[in-house]
Design brief:
Layout (H helix, E strand, L loop, with lengths): L2 H19 L6 H82 L6 H6 L4 H138 L31 E11 L22 E3 L10 E4 L3 E7 L8 E5 L3 H7 L2 E8 L1
Parallel strand pairs: 1-5, 2-4
Antiparallel strand pairs: 1-6, 2-5, 3-4, 3-6
Helix pairs in contact: 1-4, 2-4
């Protein structure tokens, strides 16, 4: 195999390696992980809101149970006081009954001076007789009224005791029902907390996988850069070798011609007068203007943004102060590395120094100080140049 063919193949291999290594690193897995992260965070937020609502309901139910418990204590105390009043009333009734029995017994066993019946019959006149009957009747009626009043009071207190017993039982039933509801709420809260913890663990797993994927992509990008650098070095070496081989071949050709000229006798030709020719000046080479920029081109979808928009700051994701350097472009770092200079038609040369959640793939966002210009820019498809 000749040296020219060998070096020609080396150049082709170098070009092929560079084309293969120029393919962008796919980050679909990372995008999926980021989507899973956002979805999981939304689920966790919803769960935390549900847990907060459930806790609020449990606290309200707990306050109601405590109020019922206080009501039970109050009713039990009222019942105890009522029982005391019942016992006192019963004692009064018993005492009055004893007094009545003593009086009736006295009527039967007392002397004529104290016997009410004899006292009536010992009246001096009819009017005295009527007066004595009235007095005896009033005394007897007073005794009967006191006994009836005491018995009525005892009956009221007994009814009140029964009513208090019924109220206490109702309150206890309500308390038991609320305790059951609280227990059910606690069970639901426990289940929600378990689900919430599981979601947090899943989120942590997603974040770990995301970190690992970012490290993998970074390593792949590093290897790609090293391979591209190696391919470029091989290409330069192949080109240099091809140039050296061509130079060597040309030197060998010239040596061969010189050797042949030495072996062939020199015959001097008869001098012939050359015809007179008009002198024609060689055309001057027109100097071409150097291109403004050199590098690979990329077709992108471009929009505009401004630091003056609500919610935005004066600083980019890489720390550039837009007040000092407004010529900044937001890019997807997996497509256009941060720090790269870009030539954008109608905008100028700017630095890729910002990122954005919506900037994915072949999309860019141009920073503009003038908000009116930003609004008028809209969305445009254009071909930009990534400068070397």
């Amino acid at each position: 195999m000749s040296k020219r063919k060998m070096f020609g193949k080396m150049i082709l291999v170098g070009f092929a390696s560079q084309m293969l290594l120029a393919a962008p690193i796919q980050a679909s897995t990372l995008d999926q992980l980021e989507e899973q992260e956002l979805q999981k965070q939304a689920e966790i937020s919803e769960l935390e809101s549900t847990v907060a609502t459930k806790l609020s309901s449990i606290n309200e139910k707990k306050a109601e149970v405590e109020a019922l418990s206080a009501q039970i204590i109050e009713t039990e105390a009222e019942k105890a006081n009522t029982l005391t009043d019942i016992e006192e009333t019963k004692a009064q009734i018993a005492a009055r009954k004893e007094q009545l029995e003593a009086r009736l017994l006295a009527l039967q066993t007392s002397s004529t001076s104290t016997n009410r019946i004899l006292m009536i019959f010992e009246s001096e006149s009819f009017s005295d007789f009527l007066g004595r009957i009235l007095v005896v009747g009033q005394l007897q009626a007073a005794d009967n009224e006191q006994i009836e009043s005491a018995m009525e009071e005892e009956k009221k207190l007994t009814n009140l005791e029964a009513k208090l017993d019924e109220e206490v039982q109702q309150i206890k039933n309500q308390t038991a029902a609320m305790n059951a509801e609280s227990d059910a709420m606690y069970a639901e809260l426990g289940e929600l907390q378990t689900i919430l913890n599981e979601n947090k663990e899943e989120l942590q797993s997603i974040l770990t996988a995301q970190t690992e994927e970012e490290q993998r992509l970074a390593e792949a990008a590093r290897l790609e850069a090293e391979a591209a650098e190696k391919a470029a070095a091989e290409k330069r070496a192949a080109e240099e070798a091809a140039i050296a081989a061509a130079k060597t071949a040309e030197e060998e050709k010239q040596n061969t011609v010189k050797a042949a000229e030495k072996e062939t006798p020199v015959v001097e030709p008869t001098p012939v007068e050359p015809p007179t020719q008009p002198v024609v000046e060689a055309p001057k080479e027109v100097e071409q203007p150097a291109p403004i920029s050199k590098g690979r081109t990329l077709t992108v979808s471009a929009t505009a943004y401004s630091r003056h928009e609500a919610g935005l700051t004066n600083f980019t994701a890489t720390g550039i102060d837009l007040r000092l350097n407004p010529m900044v472009i937001a890019v997807d770092p997996t497509v256009i590395p941060l720090g790269t200079l870009l030539d954008v038609p109608g905008y100028g040369i700017a630095i890729a120094g910002d990122t954005g959640g919506a900037i994915k793939g072949n999309k860019i966002d141009l920073h503009m100080e003038d908000v009116a210009r930003m609004n008028a820019f809209g969305r445009q498809t254009m071909t930009i140049t990534i400068l070397d």
